[in-house]
Automatic annotation (TrEMBL):
Belongs to the CoaE family. Its EC number is 2.7.1.24. Catalyzes the phosphorylation of the 3'-hydroxyl group of dephosphocoenzyme A to form coenzyme A. ATP binds at residues 11-16. InterPro entries: Depp_CoAkinase, P-loop_NTPase. It catalyses: 3'-dephospho-CoA + ATP = ADP + CoA + H(+). One of its GO terms (molecular function) is dephospho-CoA kinase activity. Pathway: Cofactor biosynthesis; coenzyme A biosynthesis; CoA from (R)-pantothenate: step 5/5. This is Dephospho-CoA kinase. It is an enzyme of class 2 (transferase). PROSITE patterns: DPCK.
Length: 193
């Protein structure tokens, strides 16, 4: 089974592209969704122990946790030491399940794939990209987003040009959903031969 890493900076259309791979019949594991599940499940006791008062009604309150860890390198590392091994375990279970189901390939949707070295767990990498003006328009349209927040997020992410240079395939998400669907189909035709 081929393991495909899927990544892209904020606002590039990665989630939409992941949905297109799923639509094409491939299993998709979202690291973000895995974290959401852990925040209302397995990670709750450890996070509450490390960051008391961040759990409300049995789930991690992301806003409260964010206040405690954003801008605090040691706190962020403590959180990552709790969450990352659990996400990796969920990813391994997903890969095993996909192999057992006979999937020819499986998609690992990982926002910070290159930044965390996750490409080492993949056979190839697809980067979703769009021109900066399109990315900016998409991100600033999000509720609660500001230009300052956007810049802070970009500062933590590898530049888009570098991601594209490291990719095995690039999906340009700026040309519409139908074109993105065609690009995904073309990638699958190449990798599943």
């Amino acid at each position: 089974m081929i393991i495909v890493g899927l990544t892209g900076s904020i606002g590039m259309g990665k989630s939409t592209t992941a949905a297109l791979f799923a639509e094409a019949g491939l299993p998709v594991h979202s690291a973000d969704e895995a974290v959401h599940a852990l925040y209302s499940g397995e990670a709750v006791p450890a996070i509450e122990a490390a960051f008391p008062g961040t759990v409300r009604e049995g789930s991690v309150d992301r806003a409260l946790l964010s206040e405690r860890v954003v801008g605090n390198k040691a706190a962020m590392e403590r959180l990552e030491a709790i969450v990352h091994p659990l996400v990796h375990a969920a990813e391994r279970d997903f890969i095993q399940g996909s192999e057992k189901a006979g999937a020819p390939a499986a998609i690992l949707d990982i926002p910070l794939l290159f930044e965390t070295g996750a490409q080492a767990r993949c056979d190839l990498v697809v980067v979703v990209s769009a021109p900066f003006a399109v990315q900016t328009e998409r991100v600033l349209a999000r509720t609660g987003m500001s230009a300052e927040k956007f810049q802070a997020i970009l500062a933590k992410q590898m530049p888009d040009a570098e991601k594209r240079a490291r990719a095995d395939f690039v999906v340009d998400s700026s040309t519409g959903i139908e074109d993105a669907r065609r690009q995904v189909a073309a990638i699958l035709e190449k990798i599943l031969k």
